[in-house]
Amino acid sequence: MAHFSDFQNDIYLRGRLSDEVPALTTDLLALEAAARQTLGRGPFTYVAGAAGGGATARANREALERRRIVPRMLRDVGERDLSVTLFGATLPAPVLLAPVGVQSIVHPDGELATARAASGLGLPMVVSTVSSYPLEEVAAAGGDGPRWFQLYCPKDRDVAAALLGRARKAGYSALVVTLDTFMMGWRPGDLDRAYLPFLRLEGLADYLTEPAFLAGIAPEQRADDFARVAHWAGMFGDPTLTWDDLAFVREHWDGPVVLKGIQHPDDARRARDAGMDGVVVSNHGGRQVDGATASLDALPGVVEAVGADLTVLFDSGVRTGADVVKALALGARAVLLGRPYMYGLGLGGQAGVEHVLKCLLAEFDLTVALSGGRTLADLTPALLAPHVRD
Ligand code: FNR
Fold first, then answer.
1. Is 115 helix (H, G, I), strand (E, B) or coil?
2. 377: buried, middle or exposed (CB in 10 Å: 19+, 13-18, 0-12)?
3. How far is Cα 252 from Cα 236, in angstroms, rounded to an integer?
4. Is any ligand 1 atom within 6 A of the Cβ of residue 119?
5. What is the pTM of this model?
6. Per residue in 19-43, pLDDT tens?
7. What is the distance between the alpha carbons of residues 245 and 308, in angstroms, rounded to a whole number?
8. What fold does the segment set 6-375 form as a domain?
9. Are 372 and 78 in contact (CB under 8 A)?
10. Shortest-distance Cα residue to atom 12 of ligand 1
11. Phi first, then psi: what are they for 160, rounded to 5°?
């Protein structure tokens, strides 16, 4: 039986046979530094940066590092199955590609490259509303691979409904509604450069190909960049959204709906009571509320509140295979990977994303095995050192 850990053998074998070494580092924590050397200042800072002083981004990492695995021995882990079933679809591993917008700022192929890489490994790509390529083109690039769509609910509900209709038609199976970014957090790294890619019309492909969007611009101004950006800026986020608005989403999406950005158990309960199918425990990688709690610290409370009823996913700070083990041990059904695959994309296009994903999966598989696990059912709080378990 093939295992993700085989990637490790491949690397050593290729080195032995043809003196080949990996084009990118296998240390997923070192990718950010590699990207810093290569990417332009504006794009690098946009991806790597966080809100305010970065306290929450650091806390995300600190919370993952604070937890410690206590490996168990002599458990026959020769055959392992790390698959997980989410909303009726079986995935080879509990990892999704987080919705990340404007991918063309790090590589011209943007989401198309990411979709090809994700599809090759059978991992779902969650495609952002603010993609550099229209959602139909990203779907086509991903072929038969699983894909979910992420919605930033526009103020103009006709545009929202139209985008949802297009996503359904293009074969997106689940919807992720991101709640935490109806306004952009205070991000000094971007502010100091006055760098916001959307204002250069990057990341607006879904809107600019949407008749319901264009209908809101006077015909003689539709070709004018400034008019298009202004129209987008006026509808991108809706700070007036409430729980009642989820009925609109339900009305326009007949598949599973997952709310992203949940940190409080009471909000998770409200998601359940509103008939949602899942939540992503996420603080947007520390990009929104600086000073907010570490996402991993929020996870156990949400799992306790709704874990039996909803699919609880996790993101913010995941970098290594051990991080995936820890998040699953604390009750997440799967994790979303964010910045690391963007660094892979920037450094190596599709091959770079593939490399990052294969490294993560191999390290995850090895960590599970070396900790005495064979399936995801073995990843429970009991695998973590008691004094730092939650
Ligand atoms: C994001 N994220 C995000 N989330 C979302 O729902 N829609 C989006 O368009 C974006 N765009 C985006 C751009 C960039 C550059 C980053 C880094 C992040 C948030 C993303 O889905 C995820 O929550 C975080 O990236 C998780 O944190 P880590 O893993 O990057 O630390």
1. helix
2. exposed
3. 18
4. no
5. 0.99
6. 999 999 999 999 999 999 999 999 9
7. 25
8. TIM Barrel (3.20.20)
9. no
10. 100
11. -60, -50
Task: Give DSSP secondary structure letters for 300-364.
Answer: HHHHHHHTTTSEEEE-SS--SHHHHHHHHHTT-SEEEE-HHHHHHHHHHHHHHHHHHHHHHHHHH
Chain centroid, CA 187 distance in Å: 19
Tokens of 128: 């952002």
119: nearest Cα among 364, 354, 360? 354
* The pair of three-digit structure tokens given for residue 38, joined into one six-digit string: 């290569």
Q: Which residue type does 37 have?
A: Q
- Does ligand 1 lie within 6 Å of residue 317's CB atom? yes
- 238: pLDDT strictly greater than 70: yes
pLDDT tens-place string over residues 42-99? 999 999 999 999 999 999 999 999 999 999 999 999 999 999 999 999 999 999 999 9
What are the residues whose beta carbons fall under 8 Å from the beta carbon of 281, sequence distance 6 or more?
A: 262, 263, 295, 298, 299, 302, 312, 313, 314, 315, 316, 332
Pocket test for ligand 1, best of 61, 284, 313, 357 (most atoms within 8 A of CB): 284
Tokens of 75: 């458990």
- pLDDT higher than 70, residue 390: no
Is residue 279 scored above 80 in pLDDT?
yes
Q: Which atom of ligand 1 is found nearest the CA of 46?
A: 15
Q: Look-up: residue for tokens 């990411």?
A: 114
CA of 10 to the centre of ligand 1 (A): 31
- Is 3 noted as a catalytic residue in this protein? no
